Amino acid sequence: MSNTIEVKIPDIGDISDAEIIEISVAVGDTVDVEDTLIVLETEKASMDVPSPHAGEVVNIQCSEGDKVGEGAAILTLSAGEATQATPEPVAEPEPVIESTPEPQPVSEPEAKQPEATVTAVATEQDLIIPDLGQDEAVDVIEVMIAEGDEVEVDQALVTLETEKASMEVPSSLSGKVISLSIAVGDKVSSGDVVGKILASAPDAESEPAAPTTPAEPEPAPEVASPEPVAESTPAKAPVPDYPAIQSGPDKGAIYASPAIRRFARELGADLSKIKGSGKKGRVLKEDVQQFVKYELSRPKANANSGAGSVTPADLPVIDHSKFGDTEQIPLSRIQKISSVNLHRNWVMIPHVTQHEEADITEMEAFRQEMKNEAMNEGVRLTPLAFMMKAVVASLKAFPRFNASLANDGENLILKKYFHIGVAVDTPDGLVVPVIRDVDQKSIYELATELGEVSAKAREKKLGIDAMQGGCFSISSLGGIGGTSFTPIVNWPDVAILGVSKSQMKPVWNGESFEPRLMLPLSLSYDHRVIDGALAAKFTSHLAQQLGDIRRLLLK
Ligand code: CAO
What we know:
alpha+beta; 7-stranded mixed sheet
């Protein structure tokens, strides 16, 4: 016997005006327990309302745009054979964040209490994840702040996501972010520290006293990024036809309900590439469908580059366990994003790799001579700092390498600055932080910055703009080994230098073989921008600079 059940909004905390932003079912649909019925959104979070019963939707009592609170009727289900009278009409609350009130602004409550008469002093305080209403750790999917950022009260700091909900965690304080302790891909729980903030003094009239906390970190030279930093307001964020280049994970805020995120994930669609047509730039189901259609139609439009359209979803599924024991481990978020970017770059850019060897016998002798002296000044002098300097000399000699191809494919954008990306191997995958104004820094300064940046990368402390604005990248495997490799161009760069391990080799000097320390260089370049002859000239020039580093002083 069929039984009708009126489904109501479950306990969603004190919220009485959550907006229905999506009705995920239609009259006549059959749903299972836990299937999403509608998606609600508040200022700070979005949440799925799951079905408490299996059955058929016979009536929908709400509309998109309605504002609802706990107990509001949303639809009626015909539950087939009666499931034990199913008396409770209210949809079970999700056991996760959405059933709890919106997160309270983070950090110590005392921090918010201005003391009426006390002279205001900026204080260092922790930014803390508020009570999430669950013990299970949740994923950090976006970090909207970076070290050095000034944040305002209520400004979103991070976005968290569970299977069923995503939410922004706002700040309760204004001030300067002095350190970050989490990164995209981390899992966090209530009470975890997001980072430290030098909270602004509440009284603007008070003369700021010397901070009682440790000194602020020295201002990073890369405060202003030459590229627009990904916007946190999606309404304004123009979505490119293809994704932003960063190898890092952050691409600005993406506004989409958990149901849409899951839908996009199931279809293998990268939300960061999809332009949202909903309110405030929210990505809707239709947007995902349209994007997928567009992606599917691309191979036809580009019939000559058929290989470029193959995705893992096109490949036959193989049950590897039929052949022996297997174990499935998840890719890190960085690895997943890198895989999209690397695949795109590999497919989109016609690559050629030019190989060369530089005689670094003298350079290495000099480095060895200086190594201890440098170490006494706290500088770890590796060959990479010299290479960065030499690369800049070659970029100056061949400006076409310090460029990006305009999206229209008809212009080349030559850059007058020299920001070099350095591939850093981290436990979570490859990231490419950018060292700025390499032309204006000494080799000691570069070596120091290299050490700092790679340490930060490995501790997941790099902000989004630390990975933006590069002109040319270097991927050095010299500390590990190998004789040569073919690095993938890091779009929008047009070339990348791969460096392998130097080796003593017998080199003919015209009369005899001499032992010389030879450094293998592998330059991959975008053949649309650079032709083979130019690439060979570039690598020869580079080898010449490294062969006699006195040349680096000349220009
Ligand atoms: N030939 C021989 N020895 C080299 C060398 C080279 N080309 N490059 C570095 N070395 C030596 C260094 O001098 C150092 O030895 P000493 O301490 O005796 O001087 C040792 O190797 C280790 O160097 P390092 O790797 O720690 O430092 P680095 O400045 O050369 O590199 C960094 C820094 C961050 C680039 C590196 O640690 C790294 O992460 N490399 C991997 C990059 C990567 O994964 N690329 C692949 C991208 S494509 O998947």
